[in-house]
Amino acid sequence: MFRAWWLKPYALSVSGRPRLPQKFELALVAFVCHVVCVRSREKNFSSARVVERQQGQLLSGRHPATRDAMRIVTFIRELIAKRDVWGATLLGLCAAIGCWLIVLPFSSEVQRVTLRRVQFDSPSFANWSTLQIVPPMYGLENRYWFEPQKFSNGVPVEQPLLEAGYINHFPMRIITFFDNRERLLSQFDDSRIVVESRYQDEVFSSCWSIHHDRAKGVFNLVREAPQ
Amino acid sequence: MTAASEVVSIPFLGDQQDVRLVGEVKTDSDTLVTAARIVMLGLLTSLIWKIRYFVGGIAITFHYPVVDPFFPRWLQSSVTFAGMYFGYLLLLVALAFKPRRRHSVLITVMMTLFAFGMVVHQHSYNDMTFFTVFWVSLWLTWFLSRINCESAKELLPRAVFLSHVVLSMILLGGAVGKYTPGYWSGEVMYEIYFKGRDYWVFEMLRSVFSGDDLRQVAAWYSRFIIVVESAGGMLWLLPPRVASAMAILILCGIFTFSNWFLVSVLACLIGLASIAFLNEKATDEMASSAA
Description:
By secondary structure, chain A is α+β, with helices and mostly antiparallel strands. Chain A is built from nine helices and seven strands, in the order αααααααββββααβββ. The longest helix of chain A has 24 residues, at 22-45. By secondary structure, chain B is mainly alpha-helical. Helix content of chain B is 72%, strand content 1%. Chain B has helices spanning 4-8, 25-49, 51-63, 78-97, 104-119, 128-146, 152-176, 181-184, 187-194, 200-208, 211-232, 240-256, 263-274, 276-290, and one strand at residues 66-67.
């Protein structure tokens, strides 16, 4: 089902209620795209233009691929002619990732996989590594809440929240990445971090505890079981 | 004109070189090697832009090792990260001196593996520098695998198209991840950049706007990025030089109006986009030499 959620903040920000019917705005955008495409096709495929282009290529010696309206057709034709397996593999990989990305806004399953990926909750490390080639930059709404912990007779004493906020790419980088790691881990031996990733209506949260093992000189990061 | 028998005896061209291209080898060599070097320059810029930050980061990870059972032990090691980072740099510099060497493909395969290692390493999985370096390394591997068996006239148009496919995919990833209310309303951008980021754009906007007005500016800033990145996802449909000019404009705009650290993420992509401007030059050279 189509949901025009992205028009809501825009419409509401103007007058407090939808300025125009959302369907009208979408129809307007579709019409403009249609006109641009039709004009482009007419310009590029008119018989005079085609003849002019062919003459231009013959005179200048330019490769047809530099002038084709659909470069991908020429590209694939040449891949086959040259038996360029590695080129075909690279194109196929990009196409597969492109399809995955296009499906993302519409499929809750793809959204769940993506949200679990940024919180290291993929079924296996190999699975996560495979997903790492999908571009994740400045995507999803990632938030974190960091709180130090103190224990009294083995029982955690409630501590005030130290910091919280939005963070880009991967929320757990607040602990694993260089400068934040030093800033937070140099202050506290034990702490707790809650992270939440959101994409449209899908939300995924996880909670981690960090414990300083002084004997081994390491900080253990342990995912807490969901409650 | 050089005799065919002499050309075939050139060691690094091997048996794959088409004898019919005898008269074109010199021009092709220069153009294709220039294209490879431009991309390598972009990769080098990406990796050394934040070198002090990375070296400092390696020292931090030695002092504060974080053990996470999700990652294999060797991908939590600072030594592994340092080895892959400096190993990549060394291989890149060695390759840049002579891109047509016999084992150039083997070198780029190793570079790509190192880049992928950094993409999945606990210390660097979140830094998009290594992500873009990985994809450009993949492209470079393909390019160098073809550089000795095709002329510039044949290879460059394909190389340019494939570079636009890679750029489109990366920009589309950035756009699609933002198709969510938090970005469209500007809330995420407001919190990450507008609220307290120490950068001239945001300092200037904070001095001019405040409160709800600043949130409105953040909303339009965020929407503009979504629209521009979405348009960037269609680069592969555009004519080569238009696509490259648009890609370079978008990429330069991203770091100019976000923060200078992003140069490390985008420099290799700018290098990749730049080879389209060699394309016409190469084919024009071919035309003039044929005439």
